[in-house]
């Protein structure tokens, strides 16, 4: 009797286990809630947030979770074991930190970006060109040298032969721009995309040496990603024509 009862109950038990087993991307229920976690450079905040909405709309039950910040910090988090599916960096050097650790698939460059001088609306310090940032009375914010926007700033400064002494060094480009929007500095070197994203809060001043410090942005799905199938699909979206149009509108240059 017991054996017959077990035989009858087994299919029900297996069906229940399958329903509760948290299937993965390789074979799970297509409507089951899933999350794809994207680590991305702070300068990608606006565009990637928009792409995340597009991805979710095309993938029922999927949530895109972002971790925006300094590319150097994100790379360090990934190499230290942080669970992530996709990494989009603001420089090849920071991506290489991850690829050298054999944690990412082959990266693809999807946009490039360059610096502008950001000043508060109305430009109260009357900054006219790059050389003005070297004046002792001008308070300047830069990204730290260890992060991509800081490395680019250093290249531009060296190309111009200037000596600029910042009053603050920030850990990512958004924190640097915030110093301008709060009126704590007279100017900052940030990406032109961040100037555009800030709207009428700041004004941007282009300068020729920025052409010598252009950053390429690579993206890659991470090996052993918790949501590996979704990771590859998100990278495909980032490389799509739809995304290129979005990046171009935001001020990036696309290949």
Q: Could you characterize the architecture of this molecule?
A:
- This protein has 255 residues and is of the alpha/beta class.
- The protein folds into 2 domains: 34-112 and 216-250, D-Maltodextrin-Binding Protein, domain 2 (3-Layer(aba) Sandwich), CATH 3.40.190; 113-214, D-Maltodextrin-Binding Protein, domain 2 (3-Layer(aba) Sandwich).
- Helices cover 39% and strands 21% of the residues.
Q: Could you list some keywords that capture this structure?
A:
255 residues, molybdenum, single chain, D-Maltodextrin-Binding Protein, domain 2, 21% strand, ModA/WtpA, 10 strands, metal ion binding, signal
What CATH calls the topology of the largest domain is D-Maltodextrin-Binding Protein, domain 2
Note the overall shape: elongated
CATH architecture of the largest domain: 3-Layer(aba) Sandwich
Q: What is the helix content? A: 25-40%
Q: From the helix content, strand content and strand pairing, which structural class follows?
A: alpha/beta
Q: Give the domain tally.
A: 2
- In whole angstroms, the N-to-C terminal distance is 71 Å
Low-pLDDT parts are 1-31
Give the mean pLDDT: 88
Give the tally of β-strands: 10
Q: What count of helical segments does DSSP give?
A: 9
Q: Please state roughly what percent of the residues sit in beta strands, choosing from under 5%, 5-15%, 15-25%, 25-35%, 35-45% or over 45%.
A: 15-25%
């Amino acid at each position: 009797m017991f054996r017959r009862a077990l035989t009858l109950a087994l299919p029900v038990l297996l069906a229940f286990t399958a329903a509760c087993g948290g299937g993965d991307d390789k074979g799970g229920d297509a409507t089951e809630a899933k999350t794809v976690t994207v680590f991305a450079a702070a300068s990608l905040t606006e565009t990637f947030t928009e792409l995340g909405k597009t991805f979710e709309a095309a993938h029922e039950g999927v949530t895109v979770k972002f971790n925006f910040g300094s590319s150097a910090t994100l790379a360090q988090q990934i190499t230290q074991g942080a669970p992530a599916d996709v990494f989009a960096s603001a420089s090849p050097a920071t991506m290489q930190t991850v690829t050298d650790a054999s944690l990412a698939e082959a990266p693809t460059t999807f946009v490039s970006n360059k610096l502008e001088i950001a000043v508060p609306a109305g430009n109260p310090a009357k900054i006219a060109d790059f050389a003005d940032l070297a004046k002792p009375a001008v308070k300047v914010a830069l990204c730290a040298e260890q992060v991509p926007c800081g490395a680019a700033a250093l290249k531009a400064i060296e190309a111009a032969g200037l000596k600029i002494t910042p009053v603050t060094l920030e850990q990512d480009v958004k924190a640097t721009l915030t110093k301008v929007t709060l009126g704590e500095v007279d100017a900052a070197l940030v990406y032109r995309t961040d100037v555009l994203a800030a709207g009428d809060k700041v004004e941007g001043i282009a300068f020729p040496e920025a052409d010598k410090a252009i950053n390429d942005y690579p993206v890659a799905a991470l090996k052993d990603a918790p949501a590996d199938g979704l990771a590859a699909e998100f990278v495909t979206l980032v490389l799509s024509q739809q995304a290129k149009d979005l990046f171009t509108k935001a001020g990036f240059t696309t290949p």
